Amino acid sequence: MKDVIIACDFPGRTECLDFLDMFREEKPFVKIGMELFYSAGPDIVREIKGRGHRIFLDLKLHDIPNTVKRSMAVLSGLDVDMCNLHAAGTIPMMRAALEGLTRPDGTRPLLIAVTQLTSTSEEAMHGDLLIDRDMQSVVMHYAKNAAIAGLDGVVCSPLEAESVHSVCGSGFLTVTPGIRFADGEKGDQSRVTTPEKARELGSDYIVVGRPITAAADPVAAYRRCVREFVGTKEI
Ligand code: C5P
């Protein structure tokens, strides 16, 4: 299922809820990141969930398997729909995360891996991390590790969605930020793709922040994103 996830990159509870109050007819899938979670705490997740939104909790866990497993159990208890971790934590860490996430009734949130952060250059990967391979090979290897561990997908660029699907299978989810409207500002994103292009490239979910949150009419911008990305879904 294709969907648009709004990155709610707000400094606190009030700003975020004021923003969501604008949506009266639809309940967008929202991404809560570290800034909002650390400022507003787990209650913000309960509150937004209580309003009927699906939630991608973007906390990018990376620690020893036991710690990640226990932390994921806590996140699962918050009833989020999607969460994530760093694939660099290794396959045992990813497997432990899945165990922690799985609720007694067998259900669990989707679990998505971050491969290499887009802020990490190939030069930094070689020089700082002492990883000798090229970026594309590392990203695909980490995606494959995530699939082997049983995860549901990866965060990647829409431009990588096709390769990820060919390496990990078409059912392996690609959750893709770096989205801009054709007539919009790029901001600090360098490689950007329109919602329509992301659909053509096979993205499963697009993560869209400022093109919606900073728009003069955020609801209209969200609807435009849905129209261009999901295509058939009319609101
Ligand atoms: O405002 P914008 O649409 O650029 O927001 C994109 C969102 O996706 C932000 O929350 C950003 O942190 C996140 N993200 C990203 N690139 C990645 C991973 C996450 O832009 N590689």
Brief rundown of the structure:
The protein is of the alpha/beta class and 235 residues long. The protein has helices spanning 13-21, 34-40, 42-50, 65-77, 91-101, 122-127, 135-149, 161-168, 195-201, 210-213, 218-230; strands at 3-7, 29-33, 55-61, 82-86, 110-114, 153-155, 173-176, 205-208. The relative contact order is 0.13.
Kindly describe this structure:
- By secondary structure, the chain is of the alpha/beta class.
- Helices cover 43% and strands 16% of the residues.
- It has helices spanning 13-21, 34-40, 42-50, 65-77, 91-101, 122-127, 135-149, 161-168, 195-201, 210-213, 218-230; strands at residues 3-7, 29-33, 55-61, 82-86, 110-114, 153-155, 173-176, 205-208.
- Helix 4 (65-77) packs parallel to helix 5.
- The radius of gyration is 17 Å and the shape is globular.
- The two termini are 16 Å apart.
- Bound molecules: cytidine-5'-monophosphate.
- Cytidine-5'-monophosphate is lined by residues 7, 9, 33, 117-118, 155, 177-179, 187, 189, 207-211.
Overall 3D form:
globular
SS strand fraction: 15-25%
Give the total of beta strands. 8
The SSE order reads: EHEHHEHEHEHHEHEHEHH
